[in-house]
Design brief:
alpha+beta, five-stranded mixed beta sheet, 34% helix, disordered N terminus
Length: 250
């Protein structure tokens, strides 16, 4: 098995180091949601759906905080992986990884959202993984932006919002060092073989929102980090274009 880049720079699936997997959005996948999309990114598939409550959490009322709130939930469905993944409810507690990821999704979206302009509403972002082949958290963030943008358009059409509360777009991409080669958008085989993992979240202005980097029983150099960020910028730029195309077609 060869999941590392070949000598000609190509990866096991034929991609260049700076090449994303095929990406598409299928909007309005959840009819009862205010906005929704199915993001298909390589063999990773995530349904991102947004629902709106015309109220705010009790803690905001108690502290008399103006504006609205956004929160996210993330779940891998039992059949999303080769071996059945038990539902969190069966363990009577939220899986630590799921908790970490849904907090990341919430932070990423709130970073580009004017909560005051949103008004006294709670936005629920649900990301459910249908199929996992690497990059489920980055796909969730990238798809959540599209789903929420569709929801905002609906609220504007209904006269509930006079303007978009977004300050910018937001997208995320995974990166890593595989067999010494920095590469963009890891699939599952590359992710398991990577000596360095990095998840990059940026807004549409090219500004950083979050950067999660760690060595897997390894270290990495400043030059490798710089190259990963360079590749990440390329990926985020392409993702932003695809998001706008998906919204324009909607």
């Amino acid at each position: 098995m060869s999941e590392s880049p070949a000598g000609n720079g190509l990866r096991a699936d034929g991609r260049q180091p700076d090449q994303l997997r095929p990406l598409r959005f299928q909007n309005h996948i959840a009819p009862h949601a205010t906005g929704s999309t199915l993001i298909e990114w390589g063999n990773t598939r995530v349904i991102c759906a947004v629902m709106i409550e015309e109220t705010v959490p009790p803690w905001m009322k108690a502290k008399k905080i103006e504006g609205g709130w956004l929160t996210a939930e993330y779940s891998m469905l039992p059949y999303s992986t080769l071996d059945r993944k038990a539902r969190d409810i069966s363990k009577l507690k939220l899986d630590g990884r799921s908790q970490e990821i849904q907090r990341l999704i919430g932070r990423a979206i709130r970073a580009v959202l004017d909560l005051d302009q949103l008004g006294p509403r709670t936005v629920w972002v649900d990301c459910d993984v249908l199929q996992a082949d690497g990059g489920t958290r980055t796909a969730s963030i990238t798809g959540a932006y599209v789903a929420l943008s569709l929801a905002v358009k609906k609220l504007q059409a209904e006269g509930k919002l006079t303007a978009s509360p977004f300050s910018s777009a937001v997208a995320a991409v995974s990166l890593g060092v595989v067999a010494g080669q920095p590469v963009l958008d890891l699939n599952y085989l590359e992710d398991t073989a990577a000596s360095v993992d990095l998840n990059l979240v940026m807004n549409g202005k090219g500004e950083f929102i979050e950067l999660q980097a760690s060595g897997e029983e390894a270290t990495f150099t400043g030059d490798q980090l710089a190259e990963l960020i360079r590749l990440g910028r390329i990926g985020i730029s392409q993702l932003s274009e695809r998001q706008q195309q998906a919204l324009a077609s909607a």
